[in-house]
Amino acid sequence: MIYSCKGSDDYQPIDAEKVPVQIVKDVSITQSEKGSATMRMKAPTMKRYSYVKDSVQVGYEYYPDGFNVFAYTEAGELETKITAKEAKHVTTVGQESWSVFGDVVIINYIKGEQMESDTIYWNQEEKKIYTNCYVKLSSEQGMMQGYGMESDEMARNAIIKRPFDSYSVMQDSTHFYMDSVNFIGPLMQRF
Predict the structure, then answer these.
(1) In this predicted model, what pLDDT tens digit does every residue of 122-139 receive, in sequence order?
(2) In total, how many domains does the chain have?
(3) Domain that holds residue 48
(4) Which of 31, 122, 126, 174 has the fewest CB atoms below 10 angstroms from its CB?
């Protein structure tokens, strides 16, 4: 409710669905298991919304300026990076899911693959990512594109539902792919 000291009885109620209950700048979240980081997330801005609609408590975080997510293997290696222009994390009773929008790029450094789409959904309970939108998947082996995709949450096993105009690159069998993100270099010899 907004109230004025001028004696006017005109006021506009605040719409809880449109006004965040919390705004956080420079968000940095680390999720760990057994003392090792499993996921890190960074975002310039997070807006938290919480309200009751049709007798159900609704809560979600909205990242209007985009975010970066880094997912790690059990050995602590950076495996997957997700970037997007916007994201929404819904935490309604019985539901927890992520929706990311706008120039979504998912890179799996260990496999050397990159996936691009406009919208990706992440179901944390089922541990999968999916979309019905256009998807482009590229790697050293070639490029696939199509509509609709489903994969595990680390983007290890992506399946494009309706592929079209894809190609592969024939390579020499001695070709070697190196994960340059997790490479620490050769060990120095001791004299």
Answers:
(1) 888 888 999 999 999 988
(2) 1
(3) 22-124
(4) 174
